[in-house]
């Protein structure tokens, strides 16, 4: 008598507060085009409250432009990729529920995503003060609300490739093996094909002009000299280190140069390559153009102007270099 | 403490029903991992009691393979019990029976008041430090009837000595203990072990298979771990035919590196024998590889070289003579 | 009047030119050598930095053993207990060179010079030779005027001095000389189609291969040059002769170096050379066919054969790589192209400061005004664009990219910067220096009208000449200043200035290494981070676990793990590896920033690469993601062996107040000093830079070392009257 009553009550309880069953969820996933299910204020209690006969992985994030979360936008696609890969491998959920020889009894895995703007209550109950967060909830027998709070496990954002890190983390927790299926970006393929075809057509049509350009030394020399100028003024440093272009201070002051021999800003590359290029050009003018001028006085004026410019620019280099610190003692003119 | 740790001294400590351990000795024993029961605690075993005193038996109380006490039958016992830690150097000699416990006489026994309960209690314990200093703790002076215990504790028994360790390359037997071996060399490793019996050094014979002397050839992990084979008595610095020779020969692994011959012999009731010899195993030198004809794979290349040379000669000859005639013919 | 009859003071002008040239050479060599002697004069004749110590040690081994023993050297004093097949994993060129010099001086000239002095002086001596090789190289590009300018630039350019000051006994010291010599002979061979010069190219290439891993640069640059020439339609028989001779001989020769072995036919780094070799054969055949058959047939023949060859080649390359016959490109090579590759995959490469990208000040610092003459020189090369100028252009563009990606490749960029700057400058001087021209009149003008004094032309020339003379003068000042301030510190001995301006020498390293040598058993094993492996081996002569030859990442990670883990874990590693002493570098007292705490994250990262379950980089940062060593330091940080070893007893120096770490500008709390139980401090150098700890033996009576240490502490054995039942694990 007692027992029966208890059973009835607990069944009711489950209906009201308990989690969805595995089959229900699987149906939802199968009928849903987006395999990453939404977790929001309406459904989170139904999903997270125990007992749960499945693994849940939920990402708490926000990709809205109000909340400028860079990491969220980076992580989002990777998380989605992991989820999609899982469903691609197991469109009917897992079929082998045999716990024989496994550390963790095999259960289905469901992936959820919670957007902050749609689920403020949910975020409130979790008391998150930073996003993104990825939580894992293990299958649980415990009925009742809010048990998930103590059952969650948090994913740590270490450095590295998050796709594979997430997979490692999940396979340890769920005991499943995960594959990554990186979908081929169709638009990329199409643009590439279009690009190749159109360039082939262009080559076919204008091949004489193109060959002429390729054979002419001017484009090559311009290309190599510009490349050289960029390389020797730290272009690769900017690329690798991702240096800021300039530093904006709060008081409106803008820094164009930083201190230190092994440090620079993006704009420095432009300034320096311009100065180097100008200096090189002036030297070329001295070598090539001046001797062609027959009139001595004109030549003298040109030479004086060019020499002065060289002197000024060289002094400018020294002055800028002096700004970089290191106690560099030489200077021609005090610019700064 | 220093006495044992630095000077290798030997200590025997005996408890009893009424005796009180001085604090110094107690903390010393605790430091080693032996925790004798405090004052007024006695070892009791209601199932094996005769005439008001506990009677020990080999079956219940003797720790097998301890080498010091062979039989315990009908020994009456009035004394304490002790707990011991997981210290690897401690070995129990006499343990409590599964029904025995140590508690205050006349008090109710439960797990909180009893000092020892069941087989986790010990009545006699030995400890041999790594420097072969020995400490024995006996729960009662009655156990002193076993002369082996105090003989052992005062280094009169079970004292082994490693007389010599030698290793050499079978290709060059005159060079003893070389520092350098080559991969795949054959090595012979020999040791001589003596045992002290009544102050005399005599060859030490291993008693059973469990007591095998083993040598490992290690580089981080043992590449070889071999039983040494007893060969016979040999001379040692202590006199002729005083050491038993053990020997093994094996092939150095095909792996270069710094290897260690490690002998680590730790048996209950015997002094420890430990020895490490570091040797270098080098790779093949440039002139120790197979050459030309010895490599079967090379035959193909040697033949092809010969063919190319022959073909070149043919070509040159034909170019000079055959070609020339053609040329002249054409001209004509 | 012919030029050959021109005489000054009765001596033919050509003789005077030669004499002048020799004098100039001698002074260039003098300048090159003397500007590299700052460190010897300031400090002493000592080997610098890290790698040179290994080279020095290997050289000592070479001169005290036979050459074959050196070749088969199995070093059991490094990488304990793995050992290192040193003879087969080094580039022996440097050691053999100095060994040969030592033998020649001793046996032929009866000059018993200490091998150390030869090693110290080898780099400056070779810099003189580099200047001469650069002269010949540039002479091929333009003329001897440009050659002399390039030679003096090369002699004093800081970019090259940085690797060749006295005491910097490293492979690069002789490699740059060989690089320039190889290139010179290559240009010569290519111009003349000479087998003789091509053989010399191969010979120097072999020497280069034996001396420096950077030989791959030549292996790829020469084929690239040939390839570009073929694309430009400049194929000729001379090119064919030069390249095939060089490739066949050079490859065979390079395979004689044990460390290189079969790489030239197995590794992708060398495939370009092989491919171009094949291409040349095809182009050669094609040219032959073209000469024999009508052009229409030739065209179809060309199309068919080209597609076939292309497909076969690509397929073969991929197939062989997939089957594992050809090794993929090495990690260092990848990191040149995909710049984030190293950061993700190979922390050990990324951790080396030499492998960082270069910011622009470094270029200017190392070459001064040459850097802006460099593009002008490239432009001049484009103007003429002979075959050899193509070489300069390719070299210049490629190398400026490489130098931008990796600081250490500044070294290979410097020669070409010098050469092309010299070309530009000597063109300038050609135009403006010839003042005599102004006063001589040509045959046509003769007798027409008397020329006026060319004042304007003269002034313009003087203006240009004077300003550039001034720049050159400044260039010398710049080079001297840079050399003296930046590149002349041995880094083994540090120098600071006292408040009164006098110099103060900090000699902690040698003090500590000497202590090790004198106070530890000869077979003691010392564990330290790999940066110091060579120095410990060279100066202290003790066995090390890891060193700067980072061939075994796992072993390095083991050391990293020992440093990053709590004491108990480290102690297991110590026991397993028979470690006797642990040596760390600590700069907190002095403010020496190159210390182990600053390198600590790399240790963690490298260890995490092997044991991702046990070590997490994140754990060493505070909650807020800061790298801290003060009271906010994370738990993992405070428990790590490195932290404890660094700050052990540090706060005691400050008499109970918090210790001040001057590198990180943080306070080390005095109320929570690190406790050590498995190691004991045995030595700390004068300025605390080097701290050495001895690893304790197992406790005699089988306690764990933490308990044993607690027992030994005075005051720890307080009388405990109440006897409580101990809580013990069940005995197994």
TrEMBL record, chain A:
Its main location: endoplasmic reticulum. Keywords: Endoplasmic reticulum, Membrane, Signal, Transmembrane, Transmembrane helix. It is found in: Endoplasmic reticulum membrane. One of its GO terms (cellular component) is oligosaccharyltransferase complex. It holds the Pfam family OST3_OST6. The chain crosses the membrane at residues 218-237, 269-287, 299-323. GO terms for biological process: protein N-linked glycosylation via asparagine. It comes from the Eukaryota. InterPro entries: OligosaccharylTrfase_OST3/OST6 (IPR021149), Thioredoxin-like_sf (IPR036249). It is a multi-pass membrane protein. Residues 1-18 form the signal peptide. SUPFAM superfamilies: Thioredoxin-like (SSF52833). Subunit of the oligosaccharyl transferase (OST) complex that catalyzes the initial transfer of a defined glycan (Glc(3)Man(9)GlcNAc(2) in eukaryotes) from the lipid carrier dolichol-pyrophosphate to an asparagine residue within an Asn-X-Ser/Thr consensus motif in nascent polypeptide chains, the first step in protein N-glycosylation. N-glycosylation occurs cotranslationally and the complex associates with the Sec61 complex at the channel-forming translocon complex that mediates protein translocation across the endoplasmic reticulum (ER). All subunits are required for a maximal enzyme activity. Belongs to the OST3/OST6 family. This is Uncharacterized protein.
From TrEMBL, chain B:
It comes from the Eukaryota. It is a single-pass type I membrane protein. The keyword Transmembrane helix applies. One of its GO terms (molecular function) is oligosaccharyl transferase activity. Keywords: Endoplasmic reticulum, Membrane, Transmembrane, Transmembrane helix. It is found in: Endoplasmic reticulum membrane; Membrane. Residues 2-149 form the OST48 N-terminal domain. The chain crosses the membrane at residues 299-322. Pathway: Protein modification; protein glycosylation. Residues 171-322 form the OST48 middle domain. One of its GO terms (biological process) is protein N-linked glycosylation via asparagine. GO terms for cellular component: nuclear envelope; oligosaccharyltransferase complex. The keyword Endoplasmic reticulum applies. Subunit of the oligosaccharyl transferase (OST) complex that catalyzes the initial transfer of a defined glycan (Glc(3)Man(9)GlcNAc(2) in eukaryotes) from the lipid carrier dolichol-pyrophosphate to an asparagine residue within an Asn-X-Ser/Thr consensus motif in nascent polypeptide chains, the first step in protein N-glycosylation. N-glycosylation occurs cotranslationally and the complex associates with the Sec61 complex at the channel-forming translocon complex that mediates protein translocation across the endoplasmic reticulum (ER). Component of the oligosaccharyltransferase (OST) complex. Belongs to the DDOST 48 kDa subunit family. This is Dolichyl-diphosphooligosaccharide--protein glycosyltransferase subunit WBP1. It comes from Spathaspora passalidarum (strain NRRL Y-27907 / 11-Y1).
From TrEMBL, chain C:
GO terms for biological process: post-translational protein modification; protein N-linked glycosylation via asparagine. One of its GO terms (molecular function) is dolichyl-diphosphooligosaccharide-protein glycotransferase activity. It is a multi-pass membrane protein. Residues 713-732 are annotated as: Disordered. Keywords: Endoplasmic reticulum, Glycoprotein, Glycosyltransferase, Magnesium, Manganese, Membrane, Metal-binding, Transferase, Transmembrane, Transmembrane helix. Pathway: Protein modification; protein glycosylation. The chain crosses the membrane at residues 20-41, 89-105, 117-138, 144-161, 173-198, 204-232, 244-265, 271-289, 301-327, 362-382, 389-407, 453-477. It catalyses: a di-trans,poly-cis-dolichyl diphosphooligosaccharide + L-asparaginyl-[protein] = N(4)-(oligosaccharide-(1->4)-N-acetyl-beta-D-glucosaminyl-(1->4)-N-acetyl-beta-D-glucosaminyl)-L-asparaginyl-[protein] + a di-trans,poly-cis-dolichyl diphosphate + H(+). Its cofactor is Mg(2+); Mn(2+). Pfam families: STT3 (PF02516), STT3-PglB_core (PF21436). Residues 20-421 form the Oligosaccharyl transferase STT3 N-terminal domain. It comes from the Eukaryota. It is found in: Endoplasmic reticulum membrane. Its main location: endoplasmic reticulum. Its EC number is 2.4.99.18. Residues 525-575 form the STT3/PglB/AglB core domain. One of its GO terms (cellular component) is oligosaccharyltransferase complex. Belongs to the STT3 family. Catalytic subunit of the oligosaccharyl transferase (OST) complex that catalyzes the initial transfer of a defined glycan (Glc(3)Man(9)GlcNAc(2) in eukaryotes) from the lipid carrier dolichol-pyrophosphate to an asparagine residue within an Asn-X-Ser/Thr consensus motif in nascent polypeptide chains, the first step in protein N-glycosylation. N-glycosylation occurs cotranslationally and the complex associates with the Sec61 complex at the channel-forming translocon complex that mediates protein translocation across the endoplasmic reticulum (ER). This is Dolichyl-diphosphooligosaccharide--protein glycosyltransferase subunit STT3. It comes from Spathaspora passalidarum (strain NRRL Y-27907 / 11-Y1).
């Amino acid at each position: 008598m007692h027992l029966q009553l208890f059973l009835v009550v607990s069944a009711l309880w489950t209906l009201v507060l308990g989690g969805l069953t595995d089959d229900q969820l699987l149906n939802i996933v199968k009928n849903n085009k987006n395999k990453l299910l939404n977790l929001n204020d309406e459904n989170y209690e139904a999903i997270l409250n125990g007992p749960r006969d499945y693994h849940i992985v939920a990402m708490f994030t926000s990709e809205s432009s109000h909340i400028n979360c860079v990491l969220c936008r980076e992580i989002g696609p990777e998380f989605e990729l992991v989820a999609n890969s899982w469903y691609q491998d197991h469109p009917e959920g897992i079929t082998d529920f045999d716990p024989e020889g496994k550390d963790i009894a095999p259960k289905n895995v469901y992936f959820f995503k919670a957007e902050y703007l749609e689920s403020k209550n949910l975020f409130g109950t979790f008391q998150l003060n930073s996003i993104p967060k990825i939580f894992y909830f293990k299958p649980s027998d415990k009925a009742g609300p809010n048990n998930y709070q103590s059952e969650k496990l948090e994913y740590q954002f270490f450095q590295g490739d998050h796709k594979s890190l997430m997979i490692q983390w999940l396979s340890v927790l769920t005991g499943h093996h995960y594959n990554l299926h990186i979908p081929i970006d169709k638009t990329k393929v199409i643009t590439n094909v279009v690009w190749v075809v159109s360039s082939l057509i262009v080559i076919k049509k204008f091949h004489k002009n193109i060959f002429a350009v390729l054979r002419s030394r001017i484009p090559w020399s311009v290309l190599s000299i510009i490349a050289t100028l960029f390389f020797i003024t730290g272009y690769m440093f900017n690329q690798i280190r991702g240096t800021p272009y300039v530093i904006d201070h709060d008081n409106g002051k803008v820094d164009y140069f930083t201190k230190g021999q092994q440090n620079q800003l993006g704009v420095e590359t432009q300034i320096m390559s311009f100065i180097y290029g100008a200096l090189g050009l002036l030297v070329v003018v001295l070598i090539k153009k001046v001797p062609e001028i027959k009139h001595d006085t004109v030549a003298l004026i040109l030479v004086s102007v060019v020499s002065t410019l060289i002197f000024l620019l060289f002094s400018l280099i020294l002055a800028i270099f002096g700004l970089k610190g290191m106690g560099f003692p030489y200077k021609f003119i005090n610019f700064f | 403490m220093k006495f044992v740790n630095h000077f290798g001294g030997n200590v025997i400590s005996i408890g009893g029903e009424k005796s009180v351990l001085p604090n110094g000795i107690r903390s010393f024993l605790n430091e080693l991992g032996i925790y004798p029961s405090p004052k007024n605690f006695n070892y009791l075993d209601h199932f094996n009691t005769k005439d008001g005193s506990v009677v020990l038996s080999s079956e219940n109380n003797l720790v097998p393979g301890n080498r010091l006490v062979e039989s315990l039958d009908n020994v009456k016992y009035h004394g304490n019990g002790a707990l011991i830690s997981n210290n690897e150097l401690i070995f129990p000699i006499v343990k409590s029976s599964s029904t025995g416990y140590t508690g205050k006489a006349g008090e109710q026994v439960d797990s909180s008041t009893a000092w020892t309960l069941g087989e986790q209690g010990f009545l006699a314990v030995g400890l041999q430090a790594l420097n072969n200093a020995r400490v024995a703790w006996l729960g009662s002076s009655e156990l002193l009837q076993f002369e082996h215990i105090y003989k052992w504790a005062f280094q009169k028994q079970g004292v082994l000595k490693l007389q010599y360790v030698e290793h050499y390359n079978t290709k060059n037997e005159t060079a003893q203990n070389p520092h350098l071996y080559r991969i795949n060399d054959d090595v012979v490793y020999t040791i001589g072990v003596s045992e002290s019996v009544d102050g005399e050094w005599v060859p030490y014979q291993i008693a059973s298979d469990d007591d095998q002397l083993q040598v490992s050839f290690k580089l981080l992990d043992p590449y070889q771990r071999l039983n040494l084979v007893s060969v016979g008595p040999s001379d040692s610095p202590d006199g002729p035919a005083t050491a038993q020779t053990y020997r093994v020969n094996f092939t150095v692994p095909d792996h270069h590196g710094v290897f260690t011959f490690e002998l680590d012999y730790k048996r209950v009731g015997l002094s420890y024998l430990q020895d490490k010899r570091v040797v270098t195993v080098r790779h093949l030198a440039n002139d120790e590889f197979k050459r030309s004809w010895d490599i079967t794979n090379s035959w193909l290349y040697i033949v092809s070289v010969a063919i190319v040379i022959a073909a070149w000669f043919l070509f040159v000859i034909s170019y000079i003579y055959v070609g020339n005639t053609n040329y002249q013919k054409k001209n004509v | 009047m012919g030029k050959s009859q021109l005489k000054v003071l009765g001596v033919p002008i050509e003789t005077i030119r030669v004499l002048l040239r020799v004098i100039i050479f001698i002074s260039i060599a003098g300048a090159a050598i003397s500007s590299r002697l700052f460190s010897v004069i300031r400090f002493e004749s000592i080997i610098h930095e890290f790698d040179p110590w290994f080279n020095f040690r290997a050289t000592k081994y070479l001169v005290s053993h036979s050459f074959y023993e050196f070749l088969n050297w199995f070093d059991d004093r490094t990488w304990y207990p793995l050992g290192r097949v040193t003879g087969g994993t080094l580039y022996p060129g440097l050691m053999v060179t100095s060994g040969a010099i030592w033998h020649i001086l001793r046996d032929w000239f009866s000059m018993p010079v200490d091998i150390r002095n030869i090693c110290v002086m080898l780099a400056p001596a070779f810099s003189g030779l580099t200047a001469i090789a650069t002269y010949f190289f540039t002479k091929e590009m333009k003329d001897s005027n440009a050659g002399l300018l390039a030679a003096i630039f090369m002699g004093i350019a800081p970019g090259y001095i940085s690797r060749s000051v006295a005491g910097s006994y490293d492979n690069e010291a002789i490699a740059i000389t060989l690089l320039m010599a190889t290139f010179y002979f290559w240009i010569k061979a290519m111009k003349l189609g000479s087998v003789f010069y091509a053989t010399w190219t191969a010979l120097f290439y072999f020497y280069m291969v034996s001396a420096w891993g950077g030989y791959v640069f030549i292996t790829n640059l020469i084929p690239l040059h040939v390839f570009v020439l073929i694309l430009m339609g400049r194929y000729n028989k001379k090119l064919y002769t030069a390249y095939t001779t060089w490739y066949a001989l050079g490859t065979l020769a390079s395979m004689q170096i044990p460390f290189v072995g079969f790489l030239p036919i197995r590794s992708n780094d060398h495939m370009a050379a092989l491919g171009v070799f094949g291409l040349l054969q095809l182009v050669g055949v094609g040219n032959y066919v073209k000469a024999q058959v009508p052009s229409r047939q030739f065209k179809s023949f060309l199309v068919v054969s080209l597609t076939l060859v292309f497909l076969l080649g690509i397929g073969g390359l991929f197939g062989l790589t997939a089957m594992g016959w050809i090794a993929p490109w090495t990690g260092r090579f990848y990191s040149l192209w995909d710049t984030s590759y190293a950061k993700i995959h190979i922390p050990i490469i990324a951790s080396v400061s030499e492998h960082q990208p270069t910011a622009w000040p470094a270029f200017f610092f190392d070459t001064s005004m040459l850097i802006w003459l460099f593009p002008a020189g490239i432009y001049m090369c484009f103007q003429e664009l002979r075959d050899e100028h193509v070489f300069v252009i390719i070299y210049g563009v490629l190398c400026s990219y490489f130098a931008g990606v990796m600081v250490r490749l500044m070294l290979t960029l410097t020669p070409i910067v010098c050469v092309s700057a010299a070309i530009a400058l000597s063109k300038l001087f050609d135009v403006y220096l010839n003042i005599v021209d102004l006063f001589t009149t040509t045959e046509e003008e003769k007798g027409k009208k008397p020329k006026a004094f060319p004042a304007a032309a003269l002034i313009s020339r003087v203006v240009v000449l004077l300003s550039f003379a001034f720049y050159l003068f400044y260039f010398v000042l710049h080079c001297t200043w840079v050399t003296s301030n930046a590149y002349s510190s041995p880094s083994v001995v540090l120098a600071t200035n006292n408040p009164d301006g006098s110099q103060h020498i900090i000699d902690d390293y040698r003090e500590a290494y000497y202590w090790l040598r004198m106070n530890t058993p000869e077979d003691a094993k010392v564990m330290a981070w790999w940066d110091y492996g060579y120095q410990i081996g060279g100066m202290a002569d003790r066995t090390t676990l890891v060193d700067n030859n980072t061939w075994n990442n796992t072993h390095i990670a083991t050391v990293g793990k020992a440093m990053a883990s709590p004491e108990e874990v480290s102690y297991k590693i110590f026991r397993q590896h028979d470690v006797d002493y642990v040596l760390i570098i600590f700069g907190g007292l002095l403010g020496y920033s190159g210390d182990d705490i600053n390198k600590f994250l790399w240790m963690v990262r490298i260890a995490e690469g092997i044991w991702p379950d046990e070590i997490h980089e994140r754990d060493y940062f505070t909650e807020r993601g800061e790298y801290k060593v003060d009271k906010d330091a994370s738990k993992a940080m405070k428990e790590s062996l490195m932290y404890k070893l660094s700050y052990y007893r540090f706060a005691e120096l400050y008499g109970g107040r918090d210790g001040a770490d001057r590198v990180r500008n943080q306070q080390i709390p005095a109320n929570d000093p690190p406790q050590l139980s498995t190691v004991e401090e045995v030595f700390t150098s004068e300025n605390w830079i080097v701290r050495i700890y001895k690893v304790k033996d197992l406790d005699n009576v089988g306690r764990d070392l933490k308990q044993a240490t607690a027992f030994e502490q005075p005051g720890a054995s307080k009388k405990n009257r109440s006897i409580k039942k101990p809580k013990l694990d069940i005995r197994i």
